[in-house]
Amino acid sequence: MFPTSLARFLLGETQHRHLEQLTVRDAGFGHDELGLNADMVRASAAVLAPMYRHYFRVSGHGTENLPRHGAAILAANHSGTLPFDGALIYLNVLAHTTPPRVVRPIGDLFIPRLPFISTLFSRLGVAAGSRGNVRHLLESGELLLIFPEGTPGIGKPYSERYRLRPFRGGHAELAIRHRVPVIPVGVVGAEEAMAQLTRIDALHPFGAPYLPVPATPFPLPTRVRVHYGEALTLHEGLPPEAADDPSVVSEAAARVQTAVQGLLDEGLRTRAGVFT
Amino acid sequence: MNGVLVTGATTPLGIELICELIADEAVDSVLAVGAERADRTPRLPPTDKLRYLARDLTRARDIRDLLFSEARELGVRTIVHAAHHRATDEGKKVHRLNVESTRLLLELAERHPTIERFVFRSHADVYQVDHDQPTFIEETHPLRIAARMPQWVRDRVEADVTVCMRMGMSELSIAVLRCSEVFAPNVGSQLHDYLQSRVCFRPLGFDPMLQLMAPKDAVTALHLAVTGDAEGVFNIPGKDVLPLSRAIEEAGRRAVAVPGPLLTPLYGARRFALGTQFRYGLNAWRFHFGGILDGRRAEEVLGYEPSHWVSWEG
User: I need a labelling partner for B33 at 20 to 30 A (CA). Which of A179, B15, B127, B270 fits?
Assistant: First the structure.
């Protein structure tokens, strides 16, 4: 589908060979039940490689905390007006897991309504965030990427960058119910890449909650660092039914938020500059 | 005495199911009921174990007579109700077959001296497929209950709910099998009809995942439900899970993506000109959003697992 020589050129020999090891659960025709397709993942990784490697110069820190197998949840901060951070984490996980793991980003429920994007996202493993889909993915041993802040995370003004919006409890509830670890993720650099000038709340294109107006027509070439923290076992000492208790869930979500904020603070403290 | 009454006996599925039941030593007799006259059902095997009756299930008297004469004489223990209108026509007669016959069969079976079990063949079409619903469909998934739905959908939902409502209230043991679309000719498959054209139009920008089922798997599931005693609702998934574009490719057709709003008039014109069955309005949801049945319950309780690929020929 995608020319091998071009993929090799874009990815580099090492990454190209690395991605050749990629496999997905095949429901019979090269796709999993939700539409994920390994060829599309490889092709997209190749197309996005220049942006990932040379434009944003993405680096992964604490990648030893990424689980090599089994169900888990990556809980990350959300930033940058348009959700480039999701793509960068996705590519970072692909690059730092052996064999490469496709992280399954959980997107908003309006995504399936978007022509072309819905199909592309489905081939890359993005799933709309309904409970049924998420439960299925966890029970299938997949690695999920959830932004517990939700859309408010990318919708906040530039002046409030790296100040997390309150975490919703869905990820914590899932972690407790399905006995899976949560890996906190802090993305530093995406916040400055595309600041939001304003947002038009009256417009809801394809069901989106608002229409963002970015300050720049394209993202700025900030250096993006993805920090992975140690796994949190929110379910430890709790029965699965504890996931029904709102106070337990909000306490667990607060633990995750504290861990993500810690990674952000540490990342901001140690970086030399926004573009370097 | 273990007799089985099968409605919809002259459909391709009904015939295959009857052949399996005849071969099953645990089944003593099969009472097959169809709309066609006996001399027009050559594919039913000639055996003493099988008795075929032509009955019009849209007539209450026919159903009553069937159950309290022939079915009682044969000691029928299980009803497999698989008769439904396969074409997309609408009207009262269609509704009587799809819904009222189900309601009456169930009601009469509850006070029947020998009938103990009711197996209802339902459809995955009863589930709501939409952008905000899970792609992976469990038995608790919302149903497509809305007045704006075409009768084809409404009838299927109403019949399904009619049977489900009796669970736990009836002395009958009831199983509802919500099957994936059986992909074969003459079984009422919308997708099969859709793929008969050399050029298949699909909505621009959308390529959802579909699930299709080989007739053999549907028959296996019904057979398991007949011989078992599992009660409740079961999703019966097919083995083929693939994108719409791939289904078109597998069928050897050419896909042409056009803006979604054009598809209803395009396929309306095709239906008008060629008398085909595919109606885009019935399929618009699943041509945009994926819907895959979760068959875990059927696997755990019924022992059903899909094992046959569909045939793309013909």
Answer: B127
